Amino acid sequence: MSDMSANIMRRDERQRIALTLNGRERSGHCEPRELLSDFIRHELGATGTHVGCEHGVCGACTVHVDGVAARACLMLAVQADGRRIDTVEGLAPEQTLGDLQQAFQRHHALQCGFCTAGILMSCADYLQRVPNPTEEQVREMLSGHICRCTGYTPIVAAVLDVAARRRTQADTSEVEHA
Ligand code: FES
Ligand code: FES
Fold first, then answer.
1. Is 110 in the pocket of ligand 2 (CB under 6 A)?
2. Residue in 104, 120, 150 to alter for ligand 2 test, most ligand atoms within 8 A of Cβ
3. Which of 30, 39, 53, 127 has the most beta carbons within 10 angstroms of its beta carbon?
4. Rounded-to-integer distance, Cα 162 and Cα 130, Å
5. Is the minimum distance from the CB of 113 to ligand 2 under 6 angstroms?
6. Which atom in ligand 2 lies closest to the alpha carbon of residue 148?
7. Which of 112, 121, 103, 102 is nearest to 147 (CA)?
8. Where would I find the 2Fe-2S ferredoxin-type domain in this sequence (predicted)?
């Protein structure tokens, strides 16, 4: 009979994982049961990702895993080994707000900002897939997030605004290249 215990990690045994965070190769150590959200914040220092409920309800911890929005509190850090993780810091790589963030600013779509990082990451992913959403679709998408401060109306307005601006820009560049 083979010795299975050789392959079983101890609860407190830390292991090294490597991933791509916002376009940069990063590595760090984590325990087997450590959440990705904690690893990103405490081991990699990317504290823009917030942690609220820690059981997949509030959406505050949303990041992109290989380009798709996911709850970082519902993933173990070890599951992110070798993958591409993008966080809210990646939306403003040169310390300049991206167009989605600027729309949130214009529409006063945040107050304390605790929920905002997660909402931005969901919106960024959603608008890649649905560039021309209706208000109803935006509200449906936002139903996966809890904001305690600002109310959802300005958030919806910001998302619709940035979608419209992107379409206008795309139309203009099509005309210029025609
Ligand atoms: S902290 Fe992850 S969904 Fe609330
Ligand atoms: S802006 Fe405060 S929780 Fe959403």
1. yes
2. 150
3. 39
4. 12
5. yes
6. 3
7. 112
8. 15-91
Structure tokens at 138: 């935006």
Residue 53 CA, closest ligand 1 atom number = 4
| Whole-prediction pTM | 0.91
pLDDT at position 104, please? 98
Q: In angstroms, what CA-CA distances link 129 with 73, 122, 133?
A: 23, 11, 10
Q: How far apart are CA 135 and CA 146, in angstroms?
A: 18
Closest atom of ligand 2 to 147 CA is 4
Whose tokens are 């823009």? That residue is 48
Q: Using a 6 Å cutoff on CB, does residue 130 contact ligand 1?
A: no
Residue type at position 165: R
Q: What is the pLDDT of residues 74-101, one digit of tens each?
A: 999 999 999 999 999 999 988 899 999 9
Cα 93 from chain centroid (whole Å): 14
Q: Residue for token digits 């992109």? A: 64
Judged by DSSP in three states, 8 sits in coil
